[in-house]
Structures are given as C-alpha cells and as structure tokens.
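Researcher: Re-running this chain for the archive, since the previous output was lost when a drive failed. Same request as before.
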Amino acid sequence: MKKIAIFGSTGSIGSSLLKIIKDDQKNFKIELLTVNKNYKKLIKQVKLFNVRNVIVTDYNSFLITTKLLKNAKVKVFNNFDSLNKIFNTNNKIDYSMCAISGFKGLKPTLDIIKFTKTIAIANKESIICGWNLIKKDLKKNKTYFIPVDSEHFSIWSLLDDNKKNNFEKIYITASGGPFNKLPLQKFKNISIKDALKHPNWSMGKKISIDSATMMNKVFEIIEAKKIFDLSYKQLEILIHPKSYLHAIVKFNNGLSKLLVHDTSMTIPIFNSIYLDNNKKIKSKKINIKILNNLDLKKVDKIKFPVMKVLKNINDKDSLFETIIVSANDKLVNLFLSGKIKFTDISSNLLKICNMPQFTKFKSKKPKNIDDINNLVNYVSLKIEAMSV
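Model: Regenerated structure tokens:
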C-alpha cells in the first residue's frame, strides 16, 4: 500500500485526489490530512479513509476538531512542526501532495520533503518564491518532484528524460480568460462580477482575477523557468480559448510535441499518483473538432499589460519574484474590495516593478523561509502606504 499525506485536503486539488483514492482504497493508506478551517469536511474525510493523523492550523478549528474526535483514535495537531512527531526519515511515506494555496503553503512543503519519497506540488507561491530552497532540500533528501499544475505537468510529461539542451522552445497555453474578445476600450468598465466569470474553469476568486488579468500565466512562465531550469527566452504563451491543448515543446531535432487533455485537474493529479503505472482513468474521447480548430494566437500585450512584468525579472532566482507575487496579491485584494479598478491591477504592478525600493531585491536570493515571509509583509505595508 502507498502511504499518502495530503496538505490542503479540503480544497479542490486535495478533494480531487481523495476522490481518486476512494476508487482504489486497497492500494493506499492516508497517513495525514491537513486543513486550515474546514474541520467539518475534514472529519468526514477522516472517517471515510480511516485517517490517524490530522493537522488543523486555525486554532479555533483545531479546538473544535480535537473535541469532536476525542473518542476516535486520531491524533490532532495544530501546526506543521508536529510532522516530526508523525513521520520518520528512516521510514519515508511514498507520496505527498502539497496543495495549500498562498504563501502559507511554502513551510509545509519544505517540512515534508525529508519525510517523503515523492512530492507533488500544486502551489504557485512555493515554486515561484522558494524554488531554490525546495530544490536544495529535494537534492539533499533524494526526494522525487512532480509538478501538478496542468501546464507544468504537461511539459514534464513531454520532456520525459530529455535534457534542457535538447529543445529550443516551450509554449504554454492560456484561455485568455473572460476578456479575451473584449474590446480594449471596455476594459475600464470591467466589474468584479465580470472578472470572476471564467469561460472554462471553476476557480476561487483570487485565481479567477489572475486569469482575467493573465497574471496567472506570468506566474506559470516563472514556474516553468525555475522547474525546468530554462531562460525566459525559451518560454512563450499562446492564447488557446478552449483550454484543451496545454503545452508544446519544439525540440532541436525538428520534432515538436504537444499534449492535450480535458479541462480537468483530475488528469494530472491521477497521473502524478499513478506514476509508472498503467492504471486507466475514465476520460472523454479525443475532441477532433477542437484539434481541427486550436485557434492559437499570441497574447495581446496592450490588452494584457501584465505580460510586461516578465521583462523585469532576471534569469537568476531572487527575492524580486516574491515582490511580484505579494504585490499582485495585495492589488487583487484591493480590486475585490472595490478600492481600485480592474485596470489598476496591472498599471500599479508595473509601477512597483520599477521602483528602487523593490528592484534592489533583484540581486538578493532567499536564504530561508523567513526572508520570504518578511518581504511579503514589507511589500504589503509599502503598498498600503502608496496612493494606488
């Protein structure tokens, strides 16, 4: 039986993984589930999968969970430092899914690496801001890494054992979000409700806004650059409204490979846990209609100016990437609270990218997680002090 840990078990990624495991429970043993506040859903998962260890990071939810599970043989913990009490480096678990969103996902990602043989990461902030720390720990502990985001899993699958010098270009696709066909002159009137309507994917508010501005694709380019050790010149975004084609790799030998799959995160999640296994998943037939009309085109950088952010980033890892992520987070929150316009997100982000108080971090690499967390707080305070 594969021993499994899921960080963020009640979110969409964690829930999708548990749904896969439910259909094949005889081959899996869930050693740990973690949540922030959603103790009701957690308790249902604990009972269904006979889980013996849980971490609930919100203190009030932790107290309630402890009370509700007091008669069950379940150990309830309140923070990730308790991983040392749950796991042993001499007896590693087989697979860990790190699906906690936001900056708070980085610490558990770093903490679990030494206890797991394979780690699947579905957290953008961890990779963008802390990749040099993650990569160091992966190497030190001989832990195998799988990217779970659909575009990066597609690239990872296409590259197989090919080294980076065997190809010249990688393309990742973007739906274009809800405003792909909206005339530029109407962008100034975009409402919160409009920005939350993604045409293909059902997502949370933050990622929906990132998709509308196309900042999510900026993040995916940064992730791909780090994961596959590339230069930004080797990466490009193509608009593909149907979200069926996820990546294209052009190799030096004249061949190009592309990967398509349904608009469902179940497929990369399924393949990450059944690595090197011929397990079959129920999926739709190949959509010939979409393949005959992929409708690929380059990104309109006038409509989506956040693309220009990439020109401000050096090829070497630095703390500047943390500034971009945290500044975007703050600006998206300001938009969702009605304090700034949709177009203000990109215009202010580009201003921030050129401010000396932020650009000085381009030459500094994060030495530990505290460097990242302290900078997140610094950026938040600076933006609050600005008249955005």
